[in-house]
Design brief:
Strands 1-2-5-4-3 form a five-stranded mixed beta sheet. Strands 11-15-13-14-12 form a five-stranded mixed beta sheet, with no helix packed on it. The protein folds into six domains: 195 residues, Hypothetical protein af1432 (Orthogonal Bundle), CATH 1.10.3210.10; 138 residues, Beta Polymerase, domain 2, CATH 3.30.460.10; 114 residues, Beta-grasp domain (Ubiquitin-like (UB roll), Roll); 91 residues, no CATH class; 56 residues, no CATH class; 75 residues, ACT domain (Alpha-Beta Plaits, 2-Layer Sandwich), CATH 3.30.70. Helix 6 packs antiparallel against helix 15. It is of the alpha+beta class and 725 residues long. Helix content is 50%, strand content 15%. It contains 27 helices and 19 strands.
């Protein structure tokens, strides 16, 4: 525990100074309950849990929260510690407090496959509870700050785990709800545990220059007062405070400079009475101290999503040192310090401002986005991606602002408006001009999104979008599309393979073994089973083995023997596979014409095809999108169709790029062979980026066969790019 532990008596004094008299009875009842239930129960990081709970409640008092939030902070651990039940809390303190306490409670009675899965489910619970009542997050942030302040006594692994989680999630969440001081403290505490040597060194360097820095602060404040008053601006106050250590450390890392070269170690804040005086003060500062290009930001005209408002500028001040200056009114300063706690009127049923409404809407949108992500690793990626610090402020044609990270594209902007807008995006106009979808948005851009109903997200979009919201939605669509394809393919595979064994899906479903089959195969439904078959995660052979464990081995051996005999007969008869067509192609108005499959695009049954009448060589069959075909005279094109019942193989070419690990070639070859495809030709090389680039010419039956091969190749973790040539 921190050295200065707040006592219950001190907490009572603080609460009495803040809460209305009629709320103190509820507060006192909570204090008595905490005393009875926690007693001398030990806290994980030293001291008693009661000391910890009192510190959490005291912080919420200092944030001027309502009595329900303060009481919930005092009781936040009773469910985790098992010293009270949800029903007890509801009966004694009401649903409001009971729900906040439950929202902050870890999931403890469920076993998960990994620490990550457990961590994600806890965070998911907190986030969902936060969406229903933002006070859950405020209690959780106060709890986390007290944890971090007491972490020195924990084991190194626990300290690093807690610090990383705090840096990645809780500090950004504090920023999202506008509590900047809390964000800074969480970052500095995390920094001290993640990089202890760097922290100590930087802290020592900053302490050694304290006297010199304070003298400079006093000088600058004196000059600012003189300049502002000379221009008839009377500041309420001017503050100079050192930047927090983690902020300085990040600058050192990014710019690769020493601490002596960081001149803006101190941030100055000018507080004035009116918005007009904010802009007057900015002009006064710039009159004598030249601003650094690109470092002037107007968050008054365009507030941040957390309602933060201020003018920011960096100037070259006395002695040619860079100075960061923030200019705002007293109300803006209060909001900047208190964040969401400054907007508590919404819980009282009072009318709220449009900015407040936007803040809570954005929080609920965050919750909704994360609610749709199931995979633990993807959830963490999406959460971190949603908690970005905005660098770009772009506008809709109606003047609505959208905040985005640096490098965002029109697709990110489209998804920031609405998921449906993103899904149907076909293009964009920026400042009245058509731009590519990969265009990098700039501050102040006016963006108009062009849509079409039949448009849908493309896999290539994942390579250019920056926001987690866009990436999550694109992945969801692609996953749905993939599942639909896998479902169709799985049904066809099951129908065909089961028929060979005298079975059918319908008969299987009607049998009393179907539910048992699903359980054995770990499938939740028929659809889930068919999707797994279509995606290669489950084979019909496994299904049959599950249904007939005793007789299946004999049946499978018989099937393999027959297959070998058929292949031997074909070889003896001189059967060959290749590019020649076996049978005629259906032509419109053209008969008795020699035909060949083009080697430039390798069409296969299932491809959309067009015939090209060559000079003296008959008809050349091309894929409809073949660049060579499209470059020819269209008057020589002939509509053609694949004949039914084709039994031969056709050549097609694939380009594969994969991580260059040992045996990757063998893994890819085995995958192709497992899908009953022959490798006609294969070449491989290593790229300058140490990737394996493989060109494979395959003999396949048709497009469905090729798609199955491609699907299984994409499931190899090392495969990065897979293209048909």
């Amino acid at each position: 525990m921190p050295e200065s532990v707040i006592t219950l008596q001190h907490l009572r004094v603080l609460a009495a100074g803040h809460l209305p008299q009629n709320d103190l009875a509820l507060f006192d009842r909570a204090v008595q309950f905490a005393l009875e239930r926690h007693a001398d129960k030990a806290y994980n990081y030293g001291g008693t849990f009661l000391d910890h709970a009192v510190s959490v409640a005291a912080m919420l008092v200092s944030m001027k929260m309502d009595v329900s939030t303060i009481v919930a902070g005092l009781l936040h651990g009773v469910l985790n510690e098992g010293v009270a039940t949800q029903e007890e809390l509801q009966e004694l303190f009401g649903d409001d407090i009971a729900n906040i306490v439950d929202g902050t409670t870890r999931i403890t009675n469920v076993r998960y496959s990994s620490r990550l899965a457990h961590q994600v489910e806890n965070i998911r619970k907190y986030i969902l509870a936060m969406g229903a009542d933002i006070r859950v997050l405020l209690v959780k942030l106060a709890d986390r700050l007290q944890d971090m302040a007491s972490l020195d006594s924990a084991a190194e692994e626990e300290r690093r785990y807690k610090a990383r989680e705090t840096m990645d999630l809780y500090a950004p969440l504090a920023a999202r709800v506008g509590i900047e001081w809390l964000k800074r403290e969480l970052e500095d505490l995390s920094f001290s545990h993640l990089f202890p040597e760097e922290y100590e060194k930087l802290a020592s360097q900053m302490d050694s220059s304290l006297h010199e820095r304070q003298a400079y602060v006093d000088e600058v404040i004196g000059v600012l007062y003189t300049k502002l008053r000379a221009n008839k601006v009377e500041p309420v106050r001017i503050i100079g405070r050192p930047k927090h250590l983690y902020s300085i450390y990040k600058k050192l890392m990014v710019q690769k400079i020493s601490v002596d070269q960081v001149y803006d170690k101190v941030a100055f804040r000018i507080i004035v009475r009116t918005v007009r005086e904010c802009y007057q003060a900015l002009g006064t500062v710039h009159a004598d101290w030249p601003p650094v290009p690109g470092r002037i930001k107007d968050y008054i005209s365009v507030p941040k999503a957390n309602n933060y408002q201020s003018l920011h500028t960096t100037v070259t001040g006395p002695h040619d040192h860079f100075i960061e200056i923030q200019i705002r009114t007293e109300e803006m300063d209060r909001v900047a310090q208190e964040g969401v706690a400054a907007h508590w009127a919404y819980k009282e049923g009072q009318k709220i401002s449009s900015n407040d409404a936007r803040l809570f809407r954005d929080i609920k949108q965050l919750v909704q986005t994360l609610q749709e992500v199931e995979d633990p690793a993807e959830f963490m990626e999406s959460l971190k991606g949603e908690l970005y610090e905005p660098d770009v402020f772009a506008l809709t044609p109606k003047g609505e602002v959208r905040e985005l990270p640096k490098g965002s594209t029109p697709i990110d902007f489209a998804y920031a408006i609405h998921s449906d807008v993103g899904d149907t995006c076909v293009g964009a106009k920026v400042n009245g001009q058509i731009v590519q979808l990969k265009y990098k948005l700039q501050n102040g851009d006016i963006v108009e999104i062009l849509t079409q109903k039949n448009q849908h997200p493309k896999r290539a979009w994942l390579q250019i979008v920056q926001t987690a919201r866009a990436r999550t939605r694109i992945r969801q669509y692609l996953r749905k599309e993939e599942n639909e394809r896998s479902l169709k393919l799985g049904r066809e595979i099951c129908d065909r393979e089961l028929k060979k064994n005298g079975l059918s899906l319908q008969a299987l479903i009607k049998s009393g073994h179907f539910r048992l089959l699903l359980k054995e195969l770990r499938c939740s439904s028929l659809e889930d089973m068919l999707i797994k078959v279509g995606s290669g995660g489950l084979t019909v052979a496994t299904m049959l083995q599950t249904l007939q464990p005793e007789g299946y081995a004999e049946l499978e051996e018989q099937r393999r023997t027959e297959l070998l005999q058929q292949r031997a007969q074909k070889q003896a008869a001189g059967h060959k596979t290749g590019p020649a067509l076996n049978g005629s192609v259906d032509l419109d108005g053209v008969t008795d014409m020699p035909m060949k499959v083009s080697r430039c695009c390798h069409p296969i049954p299932g491809d959309a095809i067009i015939g090209f009448i060559t000079t003296g060589s008959g008809l050349s069959i091309h894929r409809a999108e073949c660049p060579n075909l499209l470059a020819t005279n269209s008057t020589r094109w002939v509509e053609v169709n694949w004949p039914a019942g084709l039994q031969q193989s056709y050549h097609t070419a694939l380009l594969i790029r994969a991580e260059n690990r040992k045996s990757i070639l063998a893994t890819i070859s085995s995958s192709i062979s497992a899908d009953d495809a022959d490798i006609v030709e294969l070449t491989a090389r290593t790229t300058p980026k140490n990737l394996a680039e493989i060109e494979a010419l395959l003999a396949v039956r048709d497009l469905e066969h090729l798609q199955l091969i491609q699907q299984h190749l994409r499931q190899i973790p090392e495969v990065l790019v897979l293209k048909r040539r």
